[in-house]
């Protein structure tokens, strides 16, 4: 029978296909996985594992499949048949076909390119090149795309090329070379490994980081690509065989050495009690710093969490610390309010508002009240209400992105077990569901200003009645109020507000705008002792002014290179001293301090001050008001015990060394001094000293012995003079008797000394074996 040659027949693969020759992709809803299989793409159900669809239509091998980043129900496929097709993969329908004109070996789609993509094609001379293709403003079922060459001599495998976040760079590996192309500058960096071979490459979705798999099973992590210095390379050796492929999981974030926008989110504050500067310290701490003596005084642990430091943060998961974002003192320094927040982007935010009371006996702040989640979101302001001569309970206000400001008051919390007070939310205010960005009290505390978007609202803090509203109609819709301050002294009727483009002064009495200027404001601060205010622009330009006039009092362009992040008018040390005539009027009573992004604390002075001797009286007075540290408490106890021993007022019983050991063992090791400084005082404590009564008894015993010896000698002399005829034997007997009495007295004295030595040995035996072992290890 003759074979029929009329109909052309195609070869179809039914089984045994390689499903992982090209990278499979998962659907965004995790219901399907799409795998390239010869001339078709198979859609598998993740729930059942069955193949539910086959995307058939290509006439050659399919080289890649990608989900449309702008439509999660569409998929792009590339093939050696010189086309790229668009599918509705849940229904298995073909939507469009793009004709590229060359066999497509790999396909890449970016979210930033809505109507364009990247493909690897074989150009002239069988060289593979990366091209950009676009189908913008082209209609029809089959569309011929526009192409442009991007990178030459690349590999045809999809795993050998990757795109950085937002397409900022392209990483390509070929044999022993890693090539990085920066798309904006079109600069190229190349890294070679002569004794190793690159097998695959992947780019982090959000960070400038590249991961490469090597022939010897190692994984290289490349960081610092945009830096001028050398790129940081980290090696992970996890595999004994060559790395086949790798990718980043979408939820993992590799930490970068990127600093926060503001290193001191609490700003610069003054402690009214100690007249020292308070600001952020180590993560979770507040630090007290004396500006006049240039000394760090004290740290207060707010969050009570261990600090974990990573020397190589790019090799380990990022440690998200609980940071203190807001801090405020009341007028007398009796209360401290702190706002801590932890947000890692994965779990719900942890926000706590804490109120601390000052303990005069312990000279330290103690936690009084903790409020979990005071606001549903970030807290932008925390301030106490000033009270001048009024017998009113302390009041604080917080404002947050949840569109609310809350008033917190101190209430009685006494029960049958103890007397106590605590803080509670007294009232809540809102305005048009806008986020509350800042809040401030007037100088006398009778008015409260809260910024909502572009509106500045004035409230009665006692009744929460809205008094008036000032609208920034001259600002754009996205230009919201950032900071609010009331004037002081003669400028108390004015309230000042700043945005990213304007500084405005409002008259509360006339409810009108007094004046406004264009200024990109970054930091606004008011002098509490005068009418002056200072504002720093985003370019670190300083302007000192009075709210009553738009004319500046002092201007200084670019006071420092880094940006200014915080500032404060700090009262001068000697307010009653004679004022210096060479000082500016706004520097008479207070001095302006400001901190840069590099955490440098700076000030403005006409002449650089000379180094003078510090006032030790003020230093001692300040240190007496500071809370004691564990080491100072231990040292004071040791000194007090030594003074009591020297005074001989008390008789010491037991083993004092055991108590000292217990005290040192209970004291944290990081606050103890070096062992060499404790050795001498510790050994002296182990020696049992005689009491005053024992010393007196010993002296009386010695004096009695001397008198008895003298009496015996006088009696012997009288006897010899009266009885000349006495025989030598009688004299011998008397001398023997006297000698026996001397021996008896000497024996009593020796027995007393031996008894004291036995008591000393018995007391030393009271030391436990653990104490002796501890002493041996140290001494």
How would you characterize the overall build of this protein?
GO terms for molecular function: RNA binding. Residues 268-597 form the WD repeat-containing protein 75 second beta-propeller domain. The chain is of the alpha+beta class and 779 residues long. Among the domains are: 10-152, Methylamine Dehydrogenase, Chain H, CATH 2.130.10; 159-248; 472-573 and 587-605, YVTN repeat-like/Quinoprotein amine dehydrogenase (Methylamine Dehydrogenase, Chain H). Helices cover 17% and strands 37% of the residues. The protein has 7 helices and 48 strands. The strands form 12 sheets. The protein has a 5-stranded mixed β-sheet with strand order 5-6-7-8-12, with no helix packed on it. Strands 1-2-3-4 form a 4-stranded antiparallel β-sheet, with no helix packed on it. Strand 18 (198-203) and strand 19 (209-214) form a beta hairpin. Helix 3 (656-666) runs antiparallel to helix 4. The longest helix has 38 residues, at 728-765.
Task: Produce a short descriptive summary.
The protein is 17% helix and 37% strand. With 779 residues, the protein is of the alpha+beta class.
Q: Which helices and strands, and how do they pair?
A:
Layout: E1 25-26, E2 32-37, E3 40-45, E4 51-56, E5 62-67, E6 74-79, E7 83-88, E8 93-99, E9 104-108, E10 116-122, E11 128-134, E12 142-144, E13 146-151, E14 161-163, E15 169-174, E16 177-182, E17 188-192, E18 198-203, E19 209-214, E20 218-223, E21 232-237, E22 269-271, E23 276-280, E24 285-290, E25 295-301, E26 323-329, E27 335-342, E28 350-359, E29 364-372, E30 379-384, E31 395-400, E32 404-412, E33 421-430, E34 436-441, E35 448-452, E36 455-460, E37 465-471, E38 483-486, E39 494-498, E40 502-507, E41 512-518, E42 521-526, E43 533-537, E44 542-545, E45 554-556, E46 564-571, E47 590-596, E48 601-603, H1 616-624, H2 630-647, H3 656-666, H4 675-686, H5 692-722, H6 728-765, H7 769-778
Parallel strand pairs: 8-12
Antiparallel strand pairs: 1-2, 2-3, 3-4, 5-6, 6-7, 7-8, 9-10, 10-11, 11-13, 14-15, 15-16, 16-17, 18-19, 19-20, 20-21, 22-23, 23-24, 24-25, 26-27, 27-28, 28-29, 30-31, 31-32, 32-33, 34-35, 35-36, 36-37, 38-39, 39-40, 40-41, 42-43, 43-44, 44-45, 46-47, 47-48
Helix pairs in contact: 3-4, 5-6
């Amino acid at each position: 029978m003759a074979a029929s040659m009329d109909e052309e027949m195609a070869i179809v693969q039914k089984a045994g296909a390689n499903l992982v020759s090209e990278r499979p992709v998962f659907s965004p809803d995790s219901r399907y996985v799409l795998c390239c299989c010869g001339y078709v793409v198979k859609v598998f159900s993740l729930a059942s594992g069955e193949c539910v669809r086959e995307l058939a239509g290509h006439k050659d091998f399919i080289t890649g499949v990608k989900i449309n980043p702008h439509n999660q129900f569409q998929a792009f496929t590339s093939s050696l048949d010189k086309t790229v097709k668009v599918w509705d993969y849940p229904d298995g329908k073909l939507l469009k076909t793009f004709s590229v004109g060359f066999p497509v070996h790999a396909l890449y789609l970016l979210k930033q390119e809505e109507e364009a993509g990247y493909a690897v094609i074989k150009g002239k001379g069988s060289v593979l090149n990366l091209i950009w293709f676009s189908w913008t403003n082209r209609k029809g079922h089959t569309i011929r795309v526009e192409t442009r060459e991007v990178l030459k001599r690349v590999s045809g495998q999809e795993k050998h090329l990757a795109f950085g976040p937002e397409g900022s760079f392209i990483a390509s590996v070929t044999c022993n070379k890693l090539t990085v192309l920066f798309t904006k500058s079109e600069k190229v960096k190349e890294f070679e490994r002569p004794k190793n071979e690159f097998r695959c490459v992947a780019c982090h979705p959000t960070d400038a980081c590249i991961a490469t798999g090597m022939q010897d099973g190692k994984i290289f992590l490349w960081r610092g690509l945009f830096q001028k210095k050398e790129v940081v390379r980290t090696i992970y050796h996890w595999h004994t065989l060559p790395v086949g492929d790798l990718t980043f999981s979408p939820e993992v974030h590799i930490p970068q050495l990127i600093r926060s926008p503001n290193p001191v989110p609490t700003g610069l504050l003054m402690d009214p009690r100690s007249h020292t500067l308070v600001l952020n310290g180590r993560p979770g701490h507040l630090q007290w710093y004396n500006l006049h003596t240039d000394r760090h005084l004290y740290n207060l642990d707010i969050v009570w969490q261990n600090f974990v430091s990573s020397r190589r943060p790019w090799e380990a998961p990022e440690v998200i610390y609980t940071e203190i974002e807001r801090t405020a003192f009341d007028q007398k320094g009796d209360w401290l309010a702190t706002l801590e927040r932890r947000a890692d982007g994965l779990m719900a935010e942890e926000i706590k508002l804490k109120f601390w009371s000052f303990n005069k006996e312990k000279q330290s702040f103690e936690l009084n009240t903790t409020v979990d989640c005071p606001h549903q979101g970030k807290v932008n302001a925390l301030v106490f209400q000033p009270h001048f001569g009024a017998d009113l309970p302390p009041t604080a206000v917080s404002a947050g992105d949840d569109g609310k400001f809350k008033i917190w008051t101190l209430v009685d919390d006494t029960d049958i077990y103890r007397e106590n007070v605590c803080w509670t939310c007294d009232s809540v205010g809102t305005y048009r569901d806008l986020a509350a960005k800042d809040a401030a009290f007037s100088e006398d505390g009778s008015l409260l200003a809260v910024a909502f978007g572009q509106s500045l609202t004035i409230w009665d803090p006692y009744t929460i009645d809205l008094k008036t509203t000032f609208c920034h109609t001259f600002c754009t819709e996205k230009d919201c109020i950032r900071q609010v301050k009331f004037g002081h002294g003669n400028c108390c009727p004015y309230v000042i507000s700043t945005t990213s483009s304007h500084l405005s002064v409002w008259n509360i009495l006339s409810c009108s705008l007094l004046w406004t200027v264009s200024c990109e404001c970054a930091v606004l601060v008011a002098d509490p002792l005068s009418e002056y205010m200072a504002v720093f622009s985003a370019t670190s330009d300083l302007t000192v002014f009075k709210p009553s006039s738009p004319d500046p009092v002092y201007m200084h362009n670019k006071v420092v290179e880094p940006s200014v992040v915080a500032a404060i008018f700090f009262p001068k040390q000697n307010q009653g001293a004679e004022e210096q005539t060479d000082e500016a009027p706004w520097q008479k009573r207070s001095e302006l301090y400001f901190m840069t992004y590099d955490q440098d604390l700076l000030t403005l002075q006409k002449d650089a001050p000379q180094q003078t001797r510090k006032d030790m009286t003020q230093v001692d007075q300040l240190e007496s008001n500071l809370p004691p540290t564990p080491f100072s408490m231990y040292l004071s106890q040791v000194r007090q015990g030594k003074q009591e021993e020297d005074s001989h007022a008390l008789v010491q019983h037991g083993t004092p060394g055991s108590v000292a050991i217990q005290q040192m063992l209970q004291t944290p090791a990081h606050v103890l001094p070096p062992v060499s400084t404790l050795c001498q005082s510790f050994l002296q404590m182990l020696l049992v000293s005689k009491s005053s009564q024992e010393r007196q008894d010993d002296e009386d015993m010695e004096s009695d012995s001397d008198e008895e010896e003298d009496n015996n000698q006088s009696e012997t002399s009288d006897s010899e003079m009266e009885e000349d005829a006495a025989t030598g034997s009688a004299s011998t007997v008397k001398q023997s008797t006297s000698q026996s009495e001397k021996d008896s007295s000497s024996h009593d004295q020796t027995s007393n000394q031996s008894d004291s030595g036995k008591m000393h040995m018995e007391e030393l035996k009271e030391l436990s074996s653990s104490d002796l072992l501890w002493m041996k290890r140290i001494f």
